Amino acid sequence: MRDKKVETANGSSPAHHPPAGSTNQTLALAAMMFAVAMTFIDQTIVAIAAPDITDELGLTASGMRWVVNAYVLALAACFALGGRLSDIHGHRRVMLIGTLVFVVSSVLCGCVPAGGFAQAWMIIFRITQGVGAALLFPAALAVVVAVFPVERRGRALALFFGFSGGLTAIGPLLGGWLTAWTWRAIFWVNVPVAVVALILTALARIPNTGRRERLDLPGAVLVALGMGLSVLGLQQASEWGWGSAATWGCIIAGLAVLVAFCRYELRVPEQPLINLKVFRDRAFRADTAVLFFGMLAFVPLFFFASVYAQVSLRKSPNEAALYLLWFFLGFVLASQLGGRMLDQRGARLPMLLGSALGAAGFALWAAKLTDLSVGAQWPYVVLAGAGIGFLLAPASTDSVNRAIGASYGEVTGITQTTRNYAAAVGLAVYGTVLSHVTVDKVTATLEERGVPPEMAGKAARGISQSVAGHGSGRVPGEDGAAAFALEEAQQAVRMDFAEANQWVFYGMALALAIGFLCALAHPGTRVTAGSPPAGDGRG
Questions:
Q1: Residue 489, pLDDT score
Q2: Which residues have CB under 8 Å from 120's CB, separation 6+?
Q3: Range of the domain at 55
Q4: Stated pTM of the model
Q5: Can you give the CATH number for the domain in which 403 is found?
Q6: Which residues of 204-231 are buried (b: 16+ CB within 10 A; e: fewer)?
Q7: Does 370 share its domain with 506?
Q8: Which of 143, 337, 399, 433 is the most buried (most CB within 10 A)?
Q9: Is 5 helix (H, G, I), strand (E, B) or coil?
Q10: Which position has the higher pLDDT, 527 or 441?
């Protein structure tokens, strides 16, 4: 493959497409998809096995939440660092290191001994899993970007994001099946996936093109601390409460550290952790904003739709996963169309189309939640999935194409940090809304049916805690009082929970509507190979 210049729309020096030599593009893409498969499956698979893990290891409810959240927390805190390490030491090398860290951590999670140290063991190795994913994902994405020329990159990344995003739906299905054997298998399943990824990587002959540059360690510490504190506050808000000083202390301190990080990066004379000059590009700013608002709907959807299906539709965990497959039917089909549109016309059109379809789909889906019927909802579920599918790959690909000096790992770190941060915000805000509305509605319903106020409140809080329990489908505290209350008004409670979820889904529709406005700000310029862009994209 010949070297090609990639003209960016930010007016910087042209980025050079690294030589791929005899790299097999198909095998390279397959290898990277298998590698990131593990990270996406692990976002949802652990939640399904949470009750079994808790029972066997004797974990507290708070401890189990930490087992689930530790992974996302470490992932968000270390993503920017992972992207920069990928640029410095080579995308292939860092991808291999990240894969090994991830899979070894997975094996150790599955080998946790019972006893008093079990909770600490699980949390520690879930954190190292997150660190491995933070190394693996930006490096894998950078490999795909480097191997494929810009004129074919849209379709390649549409397949990459479509496949990896679809795997998030496989997590609950796979988790339910494996947990029937042993919950430990949900971690061990990463081993054969990693072996396939490593073999394909070797066969693909992917070059390792690192750049000898300094690593901005102070910047790495600041961004990890800022992301970690702010995400911690958002994740723990459901437990600590939004009125807690600890909640706001973490969020405000985290944001303050992130501001300090930005100020520091602007003063670094050379090789900052993140070159903030990329934000001078108006198109990059629009891409990043669309990703943020799109992820406010996309990632939290798996959790809230799964809980809704189990509580209101009375589905099993596996049936709830099948319910989500309607979403991914639209998502996968639209991802491929969105990638083609990106290659032919640029990112603006698919982002506008995707955010508009997504806003309409989520709004119509929300209106149908109280029908308590999959048959009444599936067309709108497909429409919502198509909206996310249209915008995700074009926004991600266009932002990476605008990297300064071919720093694909660095820009991937920015975009993926944005996605993870948006996911944490969505889970925290929507979870708080759902919890409060559910408690109020269920309490009122049970009291109207003659259930004593204390018993009604306890049953209502039990249902809301199933949300904080990450979709396990079990209502904590199902003692005699709660069971009696639920049995007395089961149908009404299902409807109350559906009505509470409408607030969440309308919130997702609103997020995508804001994303549409952000997409309008995109100048419509394209990143092309060997020719100047339509405009410089500066805002």
A1: 60
A2: none
A3: 22-214
A4: 0.79
A5: 1.20.1250.20
A6: bebbebbeeeeebeebbebbbbbbbbbb
A7: yes
A8: 143
A9: strand
A10: 441
